[in-house]
Amino acid sequence: MRNKKVVLNWLKEYVLITVGVLLVVAGVYFFKFPNNFSTGGVTGIAILMSSVLNGAISSGTIVLVVNAVLLVIGYLILGKNFGNRTVYGSLLMSLSLRVLEEIAPMSGPLTNEPLLELAFAVILPSIGTAVLFNIGASTGGTDIIALLLKKYTNLDIGRSLLVSDSLLSAATFLVFDVQTGLLSILGLFLKSTLVDNVIESLNLNKYFTIICENPKPICDYILNTLNRSATIYDAKGAFSDQNKRIILTVMNRAQAIQLRKYIKQHDPSAFIFITNTSEIIGRGFRQL
Q1: What pTM was estimated for this model as a whole?
Q2: What is the predicted pLDDT for the residue at 221?
Q3: Which residues contact 137 (CB under 8 A, 6 or more apart)?
């Protein structure tokens, strides 16, 4: 039974990695490459190099080669800590881009609306990247460089990558034109904001603080119906000077709706605080 659960979790994880990578690939290939939007990362390097080489080597091929080199370096230096999920994500992205170049070659942008193209070039990869980061995976590339920097320097990795991505975006002014450069800079800032927001949305839970006189029915419902746990402690009302009990519990959004309905029906005098939270670490949620 345990082995079956492990296999199912493994399959679920790799299905999510595949979905996340394909979202990144769709945004990069159909919207980022044709418009020369460089918002950092290996795909940004590929766009600039392909243009400098006058298209002699396609962007997809450059991504494949650079990722392959970084994967080898990652395995040699980082060893087991490197992670099979990153290897899988990196190879899937590189190969998918090469396959698309063969079966669906792009001669130019899909539309004549740069902002619309930029929106999809940012939104699709951001959602895909958020899905990957949320399960501890990535598409390799500059993430591998980040792991190397983390191991051998005291640099702040987030800021280091932001600086490198900013330099790649700024380089579009020199390689292409002002409009492409400005759109690339805009895309970089939108991407950095959107990834964080999507990750928070994926992990969003509801934190309940329930003040009541009789906590047992509510706790029984939380434990037996919602399959969650709770913590109870004593309190005293400042205005009423009556003894109260406080219940603390955390659950997902669907369970939160059920709990609200139950309390409304069975203990309408209870006082409830409900807070959004996306960083829950412990059994039943995310692990350290």
Answers
A1: 0.73
A2: 93
A3: 13, 17, 20, 83, 85, 86, 88, 89
